[in-house]
User: What shape does this take?
Amino acid sequence: MNNNYLIVAENIGYKINENKLFHNLSFDVAEGEALHICGDNGSGKSTLIRIILGITKQTKGNIKNNSSHGITYLGHKNAIKNYLTLEDNILLMELNDKEELNKYIEILNLRKYMDVIAANLSFGQQKKLALLRIFLNNSDLIILDEPFVGLDIETQDILSEFLNNQLKMNKSIIYTSHISCQIESKILKIN
Amino acid sequence: MFEFAFNSFYEAIYMNGHGIYVWSVLAIVCLSLLVFFTLYSSKIKQIKKKLNEPN
Amino acid sequence: MKIIRLEFLKLKKKTRTWLGPVLVFWLMMIAYPLTVEFLQEKLEVGFFSVLWIAILISMMLATEDIFLEDFNDGTLEQIMIKTSSFSTLVSVKILTYWIFVGIPISILSFIFSFGTTEDLALSLMIFPLSIISSYIFLNLFVMGNALSLNKGSVLGALVTMPLALPVLIVLGKSIIAIQLSINYLGFIFLLLGCLSIIIVTVPLVVSYIIKAHLE
Amino acid sequence: MIKKFIHQFASPKTYLFQVNKFYNYIFFISVFIYISSITWGLLFTPEDFVQGNSFRIIYLHVPASFISQSLYAAMAVSSIVYLVWRVKLAAYLVIAIAPIGAMTTFIALISGSIWGIPTWGTWWQWDARITSTLILFIMYLGLISFHNSFSNYEKADKLLSWLVIVGAVNIPIIKKSVDWWSTLHQSASITLTNKPSIDPSMLYPLIGSIIGFFGLILCLVLLSSKNQILIREKTKSWIKDYV
Assistant: This one.
């Protein structure tokens, strides 16, 4: 373990229309560490993730992001254009490593759908397509909001294995999940 | 400067036929001011009442 | 330049978004003579007013979901995380929309004004006017749509339409200038001046607005 | 340092207590000024030679049209203050002013129209001033409906402020361009711009009515901002003490 912290949050809080969602949250994520954010529905998990991403601004406290290679993020919205074919969608993701890409297309069984319009795919298949963004990341921090929802068990295994490998490569992961998974991680509970 | 501009009360109302325009504008101005004042003060009263209720 | 290619790809596949406004423009130009008794001279009287308003309306329609789709499917978030410049994206988007909608409409307006006035010189002068004004309108409505993102495009149009009124006045004046053959170039430069200011400020303002929306 | 000062001074709490202290004085003084100058204007000033008695509408119309524009300027200033220094009170003021601005613009339009019947012989002219006032009215309504369409107040505040600033840049442009447009279309109709030099006996009540109306509108703004603060800060602990 080293002390290179990617994310350091001190006493952050957030409120909408004067209603407190959470307050005084402090946590940090070091290189090679995973953070599992737990909480009930509506406890502000997604908001917290958006704060970490820097999209939403916290109403209280400080958060520091030291990642130098950017963040790869996959949330509820998967940025897939449903009027484009799979091939075009992959083009839009601007993934550079063609070899890796082909490998994961095979692994995820997406090859035969390359000419299909994304709207005609099932939810799970669309999610797989969106996961390509994660599998081909070249950033040092991966942030996932409910990554396992809608995936079949096989793909869930592939994903958690991949994430464990990434941790070994000294990358950091922050995720929320209702489904238990085999990723060794710190737990942050918010109420 | 402070002389009454009309010879009688009726003339002041009539204003050589222009009275209807002048007084209707006055009515509109007064009415809208009145409506807004009552609207806001009643709204404030309502909110205060609501805030007082739980105590 | 990759970003331009990708935006092109997206818009090209969304036929409804770019073909729709062009067709509506076309129909409006056809509808106009139907409301007038069919005499060539009478047609010319109101033709240009209808032309400018038709350009305005079709530009409004074209921008209807310029950010909505990217907002709903999370593309905007991905772009924001990548920290690539938001305002570049906005200006590229506007450019592609202009190429797909503005230029065809300008060509159509040339054809229709030639058909109505049978005056080639005049119609050739109309072409640059409509090309520039369509770009200006597009920018303005993009701003309106950014403001009322996911609140329906009517609201956005409502709040930005006043911004387009000065441009309409300039367009009306320039028609008179053409007909009296005075100072036509002055109006072109005036419009270009407006455009150059708008082209810089709108993407900046829009990127701030979209960031506020994502929050 | 300055920021801290502004935030302390412009906290909704201090504002609310200050408003309550001064509200009654402002209200009664401006009611007095307004009523007295209106009576003076409507009943005691001599008749105008050109327009006859209908000129008396000036005492109702001019304050409204003057203040309708000043209110937009006030909104623009508050918007800038909000966006630059994040002063919440400024955001409350922006949305508090909007309906009142719409009301004064409406009064200005209606009174202008009614005034037009005896003087111009028509209730509507596509005159530069009237057209730009009409646009101003539409912009006010647009702002209100815009703000109402959001459920997240803070987002609404931020976007509304942007919109107000964009509009503030645009209002002088609209005015200039509409001026330019109407000069060519119609030449010699009576415009409000070319007022004959005014006699002091007509001028003083006019000034009085402007001041009085301004005071009344100020009271309305205070009331409506109070309303906004109560709505938006109702969860704060000091509100309970206040109520």
Observations:
- Chain A has two domains: 1-70+139-191, 76-131.
- The radius of gyration of chain A is 17 Å.
- The beta strands of chain A are 5-16, 19-30, 34-39, 60-65, 71-74, 141-145, 172-176, 186-190.
